Amino acid sequence: MCVEEAFSKLCLSEKGSDDAIGVKSLVFKPKTAKSAVPVPIVVVALQSTTTPSPLVAQATSLKDPRLARDELFQSFFKCNSAKEFSVAYLANAESPFHLLVDRQLEALDESAMLQLNEAAFIQKSELVAYLGKFESQKQCVDFGQEVAKPDAKKKQEAAAGAASAALEDAKLIGITVDKALDFPGWYQQILTKGEMLDYYDVSGCYILRPASYAIWEQIQQWFDSKIKALGVQNAYFPMFVSSRVLEREKDHIEGFAPEVAWVTKAGSSDLEEPIAIRPTSETVMYPYYAKWIRSYRDLPLKLNQWNSVVRWEFKHPQPFLRTREFLWQEGHTAHLTVEDAKQEVLDILDFYAGVYEELLAVPVVKGKKTEKEKFAGGDFTTTCEGYIPQTGRGIQGATSHHLGQNFSKMFNVSVENPLGSDHPKLFVYQNSWGLSTRVIGVMVMIHSDNKGLVIPPRVSQYQAVVIPVGITKKTTDAERSNIHASAKAIEDRLKKAGIRAFGDYNDNYTPGWKFSQYELKGIPIRIELGPKDIEKSQVIVVRRNDSRKYTVQLNELETRIPEILEELQQDLFLKAKELFDTHRVIVEDWKDFVPNLNRKNVILSPWCGVMECEEDIKDSSAKKDDGEELEQDEKSPSMGAKSLCIPFEQPELKQGQKCIKCSRPAIQYCMFGRSY
Amino acid sequence: MCVEEAFSKLCLSEKGSDDAIGVKSLVFKPKTAKSAVPVPIVVVALQSTTTPSPLVAQATSLKDPRLARDELFQSFFKCNSAKEFSVAYLANAESPFHLLVDRQLEALDESAMLQLNEAAFIQKSELVAYLGKFESQKQCVDFGQEVAKPDAKKKQEAAAGAASAALEDAKLIGITVDKALDFPGWYQQILTKGEMLDYYDVSGCYILRPASYAIWEQIQQWFDSKIKALGVQNAYFPMFVSSRVLEREKDHIEGFAPEVAWVTKAGSSDLEEPIAIRPTSETVMYPYYAKWIRSYRDLPLKLNQWNSVVRWEFKHPQPFLRTREFLWQEGHTAHLTVEDAKQEVLDILDFYAGVYEELLAVPVVKGKKTEKEKFAGGDFTTTCEGYIPQTGRGIQGATSHHLGQNFSKMFNVSVENPLGSDHPKLFVYQNSWGLSTRVIGVMVMIHSDNKGLVIPPRVSQYQAVVIPVGITKKTTDAERSNIHASAKAIEDRLKKAGIRAFGDYNDNYTPGWKFSQYELKGIPIRIELGPKDIEKSQVIVVRRNDSRKYTVQLNELETRIPEILEELQQDLFLKAKELFDTHRVIVEDWKDFVPNLNRKNVILSPWCGVMECEEDIKDSSAKKDDGEELEQDEKSPSMGAKSLCIPFEQPELKQGQKCIKCSRPAIQYCMFGRSY
């Protein structure tokens, strides 16, 4: 189609109307090697829509797009200049380009009249039909959304001209960024293209699509049955807290106040006093614990809720890891004795470690937080800590807190002394513990790869996809029907055996296209069935994580498939565990501390337990050139190392061992690392 | 203990401190018959706490408490006057009184110094110890809470001097209000004393305690598996909506705008623009449906979320029925064809009816809403409608909406035409459907009685309680152990058989006390086991709803108990169904319309389908003296009748039948009623 034809197809009209809506066509050129053929980005948008280049970059995953010069218009679209350019010239392109269409434009009525330039008008439906010719390159973009900013440091590094992280053989539909080279960009793509999550038009909030919510449901089911066996009951407390109640525990509110979202209006009326949205529910619940707990026979009281909380973080939000609203469970229990309470803290921590290790195939280290890092207002905090190999950073997995009697004294949660009413009342011992959807982000970061998501079978929404193969032009209709029917029969048998399976029998796509699709989405195994397999009464099974192939006899389907899924689950865990184990190093000399951090390790060091020393370690490890000659690692952050936890499993402390940083005697090993 | 002793016990001191906290002791007298012995209400509160009499009334469930005159101080406490009165005089009381202690006072440090009058000071711990002597009469009250107001009409009626609704034989711990005489007061007590729900310090919000949340979990499980079988997937969308998106569909937002809660601040910063909390998620979700649905192969898209939404109602809130935050599920589906969409609307409505009839034992009538009552912005709304016998009012149960293409056109949710890209794009057909925790309120209103909650076994948190009986002073320790062990063995067998059972083996309470407790809480059956039962290898089973007794042989436990539970479930449904069926009457003459409403009926009448006529019916039925001589029924509201639904199951329309109200021809029967 030449440009003249295109113009005629466009049904352009010189008769506009006064309320025609202005539309602009812009061309961006991403940063590419001089020798490479450029892949320009055409943006078709309402005149009134601003189309910032960072959003263009985000939509295409291309680096530094800039408005193109006339040379590019001439060489690529055979159009004299940017000024003359219109969508008609798209027909002249001889190699691929990106086409971004403004969602606001797409949202217009089909009958709307658009103005392309001073003299050219077109009906929206016509423009849409025309752009439809470039459907495979087209993408609809919401320019109203906020740009997902990589954190500042990353941005500098990216700008510093590191090798492009773009994957050479990636198609637009797949992942176009290399996990090893641009981890944040990869993470964002893997989540959106894998259809786990979508960005939302309120910054810091994200949509959990079925693929990720189903993982959350698996976790809920597992954890819920564990805590119910401990006697925990579920309940639901309101999401709103009055400021009076929220601010009752001072240390606690200090920890949360800067992030509290306030409702001040309902309809068109101002509320008499602002009402907070819970950032966590201690102060929501404990006034009622005080009311309900009158006697030691009311103890223990163990409640849990599955809900969402809001922490209006002003730091750069990140899907799953740091979001302004997130889903979690929060357990709040009250006990007569401190022993009973402390035992539960550890029981729950084991369940949290179980969520990571048994369900998500993510290894964690259990331990206790330092005084500096513990929960605001509590006695002590236990935690399970994970590790992200690409960044070498630790990540807090989930925490289980013992609150002691601090809140019970503040909220007067007390019971009659079992010894009699002439003995003083007893304040209860309390715990609180929470696990959030952050776990899903950690899982994705650890297992997934450049082909897409890798999801452990125990939690994935679907465990297996059945795909007919070997259908060619020579295949007769009867043969095709037979293959489809056999594949469907396999799907049915798997479902009956309790395996979350589905089939893709769409003849419009090649098996290869389907393979890529389900690799992108992280379906743990695919099951291929072709004419030869039918002859041999077998299927071919391919694992998502490493493409390992198995031939499975049909009569062994119900036993072998669960075994293969289970092996896959174990292999994911073992691989991740090896990476964590080999990057958790014991360091006893401060001179080795920073170099080891820079080698993407977390560090176990003898430590004195003093808060000032902890702060000193963080400050001292923030500089990269600590007198050492360091391997240059541009991707490693220059942030200092925080204490991650004091692991329960301790290396043996040598007699007279000094603290890694100061001259005080060491009292334990502490795990330090850069962290999320 | 005489008053002198009491004074000495009080350890009063004349040495105060400047920061001593003022404490007041007030006495209220509730409205009682002149002949009756008054049961005064003593309120001990911080000087700074206001103690409004409606809160005193609410806490004690007593009518119209007024500050007592000196006569009562003299006769009851042997104290000269209100002015001289202090807590020391409580020791003089010879008959029961209520003692309400301010939660603010209880929350003070044990060491706080209190000032009782000009010259008397006491340490808080001392006062608490003293008040502990009256523990059985004592109650801690949060005077900061809002009074749960009965609706205005009820209040007038109550004030008009109807017979007191107080139950004569009710103990303080049980329900003290008669369901038949003071339905709103009864409803409030049954929920709070049955421990289903508690009032919360943010008005219109309530706490769902485990007993009600467990019912919600049963409903979730049942409904979730039904919709998943239809191909619905769960997801989670953010609770926040930008005003731009919220206001995109005009009819829709008009319906919700007055009730939207707005977040305008985070921490101490004002947000750039206010962000709404979702009142429902159509506008939250559909921009993303537009993004995700590109081809007809992406259809149908069926998503559901279990979440909470906020509608800041300014009408009188009511637990479960009208609350500012509530839990629900909202399903949102997009279909290629209108037939597919409409079929789903009905499938979902059947599930909703199933939740009511099969799980909650509540009969409903399925039908379609009139144009006036349908969902704002949708094409049509289907509904299941319940009936509350005590008030004779209908109640909307749950609704399933067909949205047509209205939202899809507004949000541009469209697909390529399967006929080819030269055919116009197709806008999808959408549905939305929701069921909320309101269902629990309806269930409670229908089945429960003056002894407490009655909960259908299929949804109740616990289905059976095992209680040892027949233990007397003569029982030896060995016998007692044997009874306990046998009871525990029964509990274990029941649990193993999948029955949600527990046992109460606490020797400090009598079986009778326990019976009342578990009747209050609505445990469907209690299983009694005493020495004679052990001899005969049997247990006695008593049904909560009607005290019917069964003797069950131990060897039939696992078969008979589930049968008894199932019969109980059916009997609850049949009883409720009979009440609904006998109060759903066909009326064909307008003159019989209002009298039938006043007899607590809902009405099926031939109707023209015209909106003005519907409004006329409402206005005309609002007056009670419609030219008819009506049975005086003080409890029936004077509100007009709304259309509840056009039932799917229609009486046959006679030829030439006129509308019940106007002269137009009737086109169908419509169900009218006063309603919630």
From TrEMBL, chains A, B:
It catalyses: tRNA(Pro) + L-proline + ATP = L-prolyl-tRNA(Pro) + AMP + diphosphate. Its EC number is 6.1.1.15. It comes from Torulaspora globosa. GO terms for cellular component: aminoacyl-tRNA synthetase multienzyme complex; cytoplasm. Gene3D superfamilies: Anticodon-binding domain, Bira Bifunctional Protein, Domain 2, C-terminal domain of ProRS. Transmembrane segments: none annotated. The keyword ATP-binding applies. Residues 619-642 are annotated as: Disordered. It comes from the Eukaryota. Keywords: Aminoacyl-tRNA synthetase, ATP-binding, Ligase, Nucleotide-binding, Protein biosynthesis. This is proline--tRNA ligase. Belongs to the class-II aminoacyl-tRNA synthetase family. It is an enzyme of class 6 (ligase). PROSITE patterns: AA_TRNA_LIGASE_II. SMART domains: ProRS-C_1. Residues 204-456 form the Aminoacyl-transfer RNA synthetases class-II family profile domain. GO terms for biological process: prolyl-tRNA aminoacylation. GO terms for molecular function: aminoacyl-tRNA deacylase activity; ATP binding; proline-tRNA ligase activity. InterPro entries: aa-tRNA-synt_IIb (IPR002314), aa-tRNA-synth_II (IPR006195), aa-tRNA-synth_II/BPL/LPL (IPR045864), Anticodon-bd (IPR004154), Anticodon-bd_dom_sf (IPR036621), Pro-tRNA-ligase_IIa (IPR002316), Pro-tRNA-ligase_IIa_arc-type (IPR004499), Pro-tRNA_ligase_II_C (IPR016061).
